[in-house]
Write a structure and sequence with these properties.
CATH superfamily of the largest domain: Winged helix-like DNA-binding domain superfamily/Winged helix DNA-binding domain
Order of helices and strands: HHHHHHHHH
Largest sheet: none
CATH architecture of the largest domain: Orthogonal Bundle
CATH class of the largest domain: Mainly Alpha
Helix content: over 70%
Distance between the termini: 40 Å
Number of domains: 2
CATH topology of the largest domain: Arc Repressor Mutant, subunit A
Number of helices: 9
Radius of gyration: 18 Å
Structural class: mainly alpha
Shape: elongated
Length: about 180
Amino acid sequence: MAREINRNLVEQCKNGDISSFEKLFYLLKDDVYNTAFRVLGNYQDAEDITQEAFVKIWLNLKNFKMESSMQTWVYRITVNLCYDFLKRRSRISLAEEPIENFKKLTSNESPLFLLTEKELREKVEETFNLLSPDYRLILTLKELEGLSYKEIAEILDCSVDAAKMKAHRARVEFKKIIAKYLEG
């Protein structure tokens, strides 16, 4: 969510201006959808979460405090909705996601570098699906979305150190699982 949102637009939305909210929707809809898709791995689920996110944004705009960024707040709503969805249904797919970001989670001498792109994608997806929803979420935010630890901490409502620790633990678990795949 790299777009900077004009504070006046946010104020107009907070005051109930529908046309301003429509502008906000068009500015953020692709980012919300892409985030939901990356976390959920399913087009229809991502569309559902996108709709649900904007309903929630509209209903809770009055509670938005201008001292934080609108993008972080929207990201948090989206991620929380995805997280709740994953709790209900523990299935995620990375079939459409480039795996380059996951290559750096393994060493250069790893047999992963000998696999074809398709084989590697399948191994990464299988490994990713075996992670807990918490680990899938943190890896999505850090490795796929490229967020800073500060942004992740705001989204997950934890300290920066806690976000770093969660990401480290998720990477360790990912490496452990992928190593088992490669052994057998």
